[in-house]
Amino acid sequence: xxxxxxxxARGLMDEQTFLDNFNNLIYRHKTYLCYETxxxxxxxxxxxxxxxxxxxxxxLMDEQTFLDNFNNLIYVHKTYLCYETxxxxxxxxxxxxxxxxxxxxxxxxxxxxxxxxxSIFLGDIPSWNLDTELRxxxxxxxxxxxxxxxxxxxxxxxxxxxxxxxxIFAARIYERSQGYEAGLRKLKAAGAEVAIMSLQEFEYxxxxxVDHQQDEDKPFPRWDNLDSxxxxxxxxxxxxxxxxxx
Length: 246
Ligand SMILES: [Zn+2]
Fold this sequence. Notes:
Elements: E1 8-10, H1 15-22, E2 31-35, E3 38-41, E4 44-47, E5 53-57, H2 63-70, E6 80-89, E7 92-95, E8 101-104, H3 117-124, E9 135-144, H4 148-160, E10 164-172, H5 180-189, E11 193-196, H6 199-209, H7 226-242
Parallel strand pairs: 9-10, 10-11
Antiparallel strand pairs: 1-5, 2-5, 3-4, 6-7, 6-8, 6-9
Keywords: Antiviral defense, Cytoplasm, Hydrolase, Immunity, Innate immunity, Metal-binding, Nucleus, Phosphoprotein, Repeat, Zinc
Enzyme class: hydrolase
GO molecular function: cytidine deaminase activity; RNA binding; zinc ion binding
């Protein structure tokens, strides 16, 4: 299952939640997991009821999380990354829904090592076991463009995985990392498409990565100056990518 935000664990599931989510005839965006544990002793299995629960892993983001983090006019400390994968065959692109989801960076506040979203994402890809004989296109929508270190990691990944094409759409340009401009140029040189998220990408993510509960058709609530900021950032990115300094 795709990485998502922290699972909500509780003892028993609603009747309707079970029926809605485990029906083997219905396509659902969510994934539920029930688990139980037994202790083995000689030939006996002893149920450990305190370890029995259900949890929901989410592959869709809350509306507010998306709006707070992808707004191209606001400075946010976190980074969110939505991704999807297609298999490319002749002129067709076949979506692979099992390799679609979102994740966020891990801050030092969790007591664990800081990890950037791109680094976590790259760490997940080997477990997909993509067939090196086939061609894939991975698209990432990231709230911040990659820092110099992540751009280097992504570049290395592309050089070692020629069967994968990468497209990156960033909501904002991350400028607080030394060498980020050269990093973005290296990414482009390695074959990645790097662009700024326009209204079209915001609407696409809203439709494909955000949980609208009951209202599937809820329109994307665009903010003032979205387009002018997109245009400003696109000019800035073009300037970075065209620079011949390195
Ligand atoms: Zn980074």
